[in-house]
Amino acid sequence: MPIDPNFQANRVATTFENLKVWKNKISNLGIYGTNVAVDFDLCVGDGACIEVCPTNVFDWQGVGADRKALPSRERDCIYCFGCEAVCPKFAIRVSKP
């Protein structure tokens, strides 16, 4: 299931590995980001979003099997929605401010 478009209203802000994330009762890791958001519970860490992004919005968070795509430079997003299109688990939600 893709990210809830109202995740910030429907979840509680907390921290995961020093990152502000939004969690609910069923999430383990939460959702990170605002205009470019990644659901760490859904992300499989395949790197497709990192490869397709023309402005290098993403970095890796974690290592090995636990690595996740981190939208660390979402202010650089040009809203091409390429990352959403290539994500196999629909773990990314891009929304214009």
From TrEMBL:
**InterPro entries under this entry?**
4Fe4S_Fe-S-bd, 4Fe4S_Fe_S_CS, Fe-S_Ferredoxin
Q: Answer whether the UniProt record assigns the keyword Magnesium to this protein.
A: no
Q: Which PROSITE patterns match?
A: 4FE4S_FER_1, 4FE4S_FER_2
The yes or no answer to whether the keyword 4Fe-4S is present is: yes
Pfam families according to UniProt? Fer4_7
List the Gene Ontology MF annotations in alphabetical order.
4 iron, 4 sulfur cluster binding; metal ion binding; oxidoreductase activity
Q: Where is the 4Fe-4S ferredoxin-type domain?
A: 34-63, 67-97
Name it.
Answer: 4Fe-4S ferredoxin iron-sulfur binding domain-containing protein
Source organism per entry reads Nitrososphaera gargensis (strain Ga9.2)
